[in-house]
Amino acid sequence: MTEPRTRQMDDAARVLLRLARLQLAAGSDSCHVQERISSLASTWDMTASLFVNGERLLIMLDDGGTYRTRIGHRVSGIGMDADRLFALDELSRRMEGEPHCPRDMSAALDAIESRPQRYPATWVTLCVGITAAALARLFGAEWCVVAAALPAGVINRMVQHRLLSARFAPLLAAGSAALVSSLLAKLLLHDTHADASLAMVAMGMVLVPGIALLNGFRDLVQGAASLAISRLADASSVVAGIAAGLAVAGSLAGITVTPYAPPVQLGLLEDVAMSAAAAWGFAAMFNAPLRATVPIVVCGALAHGLRSTLMYTGLDLGMSTFTAALVAGQIAIWMARVMHAPWIAFAFPAVVALIPGSYAFRGLIGSLAIMNSGGTLPPYQLGATQADLITFVLLTCAIGSALLVVASLARTTPRR
């Protein structure tokens, strides 16, 4: 093999590993990333095998007899950056349509990775407050609790962002944010007889790493067990931190988080409006491009509204959630084809409000109560705690399974 071709393979290995890392960190699942890497490598007349695990990425390129193997950096982050997903998808499409040399792609990746956040921090902080207020109402909170949840949600975001910037562990940042914002919500509701526990639940929900939970489940089903375990472990530790923060806040403020609270049935129009507000906030939190915000809001409102409607007709929570996530995914695919963008950038922000994070930390708080009681808790509370944990697992699996079905359907139609 000639030396220029050897250098090209080395450059291709580096740039493909970098692309894979950026896509995974931005919220893609391992199967999608492997397909995209293989497709790009073929434009350079190479065959790529990408191995993904929780520690490192490894790629092997084959040029018909000559091999190059390279190990990449660890995948960091458990969230989502929809703007980066859009940019990476557009870059990949352009490279597949008009092949360029790997170094050209490396320069484009430099620009994408150095791109600042689309929205100012103050705007995202306000959106988190609005999302917290909308979620509190969806949980059945009174309007005075909804009003208190908005400024508490703003403080929630500020505390979490400040601690993460100071390089605190994600679980400590989430737990501290849940603690401080819950105490603030209780303080604002001090002169009322409203149930402040619903504001506390909303404070926890805006912190739940739903994208990592869903991607972890999808990676596990698709065979990337190492990455799946890493993502699920990171997400579970954050959920545990949220539960600990809420438990401490409840103890200090004298608030009891009710175990196993079934979904509240609001009026359909109000449900859709609150779901749209929550989806709009999540779109800003996930750095979605402006042109994607309206589709995300529509998708999120329809998904939550559909689940509520199905439950009203008598369908159980699990099947209602699965169906709503499936429909949201199908709508996301259609929007993605119209806008030439990755469908997960629409689907994930839309289904986050369906993620049963509240059941997770209700169950964990109940588990702490069981531990501290010495076995004296009544059977109802024991059963409610078990119900919370089981509901969390089953609903997460329902949403993840629905998105896996949607992903399979998306692969059956060629990209335009």
Summarize this, please?
The chain is mainly α and 416 residues long.
What would you note in describing this structure?
The protein has 416 residues and is mainly α. It is 72% helix and 4% strand. It is built from 16 helices and 3 strands. A 3-stranded antiparallel beta sheet has the order 1-2-3. Helix 3 runs antiparallel to helix 4 and helix 11 packs antiparallel against helix 12. It starts with a helix and ends with a helix. The model has no long low-confidence stretch (mean pLDDT 85).
Distance between the termini: 36 Å
Show unreliable segments.
none
Strand order of the largest sheet: 1-2-3
Return Rg in Å: 22 Å
Decide which structural class fits the backbone: mainly alpha
Number of strands: 3
What characteristics describe this protein?
3-stranded antiparallel β-sheet, 16 helices, mainly alpha, 72% helix
SSE map:
Layout: H1 3-26, H2 30-43, E1 47-52, E2 57-62, E3 67-71, H3 82-97, H4 102-113, H5 121-138, H6 143-165, H7 170-188, H8 197-205, H9 210-221, H10 225-253, H11 268-285, H12 290-312, H13 317-339, H14 344-351, H15 357-373, H16 379-412
Antiparallel strand pairs: 1-2, 2-3
Helix pairs in contact: 1-2, 1-3, 1-4, 3-4, 5-6, 5-8, 5-11, 6-7, 6-8, 7-8, 7-10, 8-10, 8-15, 9-10, 9-16, 10-15, 11-12, 12-13, 12-14, 13-14, 13-16, 15-16
